[in-house]
Design goal:
With about 140 residues, this protein is α+β, with helices and mostly antiparallel strands. It has helices at about 30-40, 65-75, 95-115, and strands spanning about 5-10, 15-20, 50-55, 60, 80-90.
Length: about 140
């Protein structure tokens, strides 16, 4: 496959587009995390316990794992644009829980990395010994 496909997530009247450059390499967890980042940046509402579905043969098909995502691309061949409907459930699905956990872990690692970065010395701050000329002290 390998062609660009726009996935248009629709929730509460708001469209969020994500471009998939290679459908053979995309995975659902990363796709969900990428979807969440856009409404967070734009400060638009998103469901606490989302469900992701697409329509095939007049039926909603749930995206619950990578196999279902790959099947979506097979079910809808040659499309440049695929709509993904975002609904809200009473509790999170296993794939959403995995995505939430991974997203939190990535945030934690990014924060820890930035906390541990030591400033690099400039030429004037280097720890190398300097040669100091002997000066005679006047008494």
């Amino acid at each position: 496959m390998g062609d660009n496909v726009v996935l248009r997530f629709q929730y509460s009247g708001k469209d969020t587009d994500i471009v998939v450059q290679d459908v053979d390499k995309v995975n659902l967890v990363d796709l969900i995390i990428e979807y969440w980042e856009i409404p967070e940046r734009e400060q638009t509402p998103m469901p606490k316990h989302p469900e992701f579905t697409y329509i095939h043969k007049m039926k909603h098909v749930e995206l619950k794992n990578d196999m279902a995502l790959m099947k979506m691309f097979v079910d809808l061949p040659g499309r440049d644009l695929i709509y993904i409907w975002v609904g809200e459930l009473q509790k999170s699905t296993p794939i959403v829980e995995i995505a939430q956990s991974l997203k939190a872990s990535r945030r934690m690692n990014a924060t820890e990395s930035s906390d541990h970065i030591q400033p690099q010395p400039t030429l004037d701050q280097s720890n190398e010994p300097r040669l100091i000329k002997n000066k005679k002290l006047k008494l």
